[in-house]
Design goal:
The protein is α/β, with parallel strands linked by helices and 135 residues long. It has six helices and six strands. It has a domain of 94 residues. Strands 3-2-1-4-6-5 form a six-stranded mixed β-sheet.
Amino acid sequence: MRFFDTNILVYAATDQDPRKRDIARELIGHAIEVNHDGCISTQVLGEFCNTMLRKSLRTKEEIDGMLDYFRELLEIDVTIDLVRHALAVKEEYGIQFYDALIVSSAEKLGCHEIVTEDLNPNQTYRGMAVVNPFK
């Protein structure tokens, strides 16, 4: 299973960086349509919507349509237990809380990879490799 961080969804949904857009779309499309191994969290969806609206990258209607596509990814809700787990991960690795919540969500879903450009590539968190597809 591969966990997609917010930045991957944002790149897939915008044309700001065509190279990153194409890579992100290919990764997400493959995870949805071929391997059925893509994962996200409600945190990622919230951050995605906030980024798209705050930066006026897409309309509410366009975002709503994108959410239908992202629905095909396995999703985990952020719960109190997950937040507590993220606090432990933050302490263990000395990373930002929201990054720790990403790691915790991915771990809870049984992922082997976290696809992001926000964590150190080639770093391993609790047995999960961080992959920056844009490097």
